Every structure is written in C-alpha cells, then in structure tokens.
Amino acid sequence: MNVSLTKKLENYVQDKLKSGLYTSASEVIREGLRLLQEQEQLRKIKLKALKSEIRKGLDDAKSGRTSSLDINSIKTRGRTLLKRKRNA
Questions:
Q1: 3-state secondary structure (DSSP) of residue 64
Q2: Which of 1, 8, 13, 75 registers the highest number of CB atoms within 10 A of its CB?
Q3: What is the pTM of this model?
Q4: What φ, ψ does residue 41 adopt, rounded to 5°?
Q5: Is a pLDDT exceeding 90 seen at residue 68?
C-alpha cells in the first residue's frame, strides 16, 4: 500500500519520529489509524446511548409521563449556568 501525505502531515510524522516515541513512519500511521478506530467506536457507543434516550423519551410521551415546560425558567437556568462557566 502506498499512502500520500500532505507536507504538513509528513512533517508531523517526522516530528513524531524525532521525538523517539516511534521508530518508523508506519508505526506513526498505524497508531493514528488505531486512534481513528477508537474514535469511531466511541461515536457508535454514544449514538446508541442517544437513540436509547430518545426511545425512552418517546415511550414516556406515549405513556403520558410528561410535564409542561416553562421556557422562561429554562432560559434563566441556562443563562445562570453560562454565567458560572464564564466566571470560573
């Protein structure tokens, strides 16, 4: 297999080799691909959890387990949380 890299990526691989963490360009590329696989797995897990939560919400709605929303209260709570984050 032959892979072409941009100059920026090629320089990144060279920097990794110079750091001594990797002994070959192939090793750097394999590590990157392993990380990509992990990232895809995490996305799948998160998507599955999200779909499960959506399903729960829809089931609750069908069963009448809902409550009314006060949009002003939600906005106030959100603004308070944002303010705390900014001040932290």
A1: coil
A2: 13
A3: 0.66
A4: -65, -45
A5: no
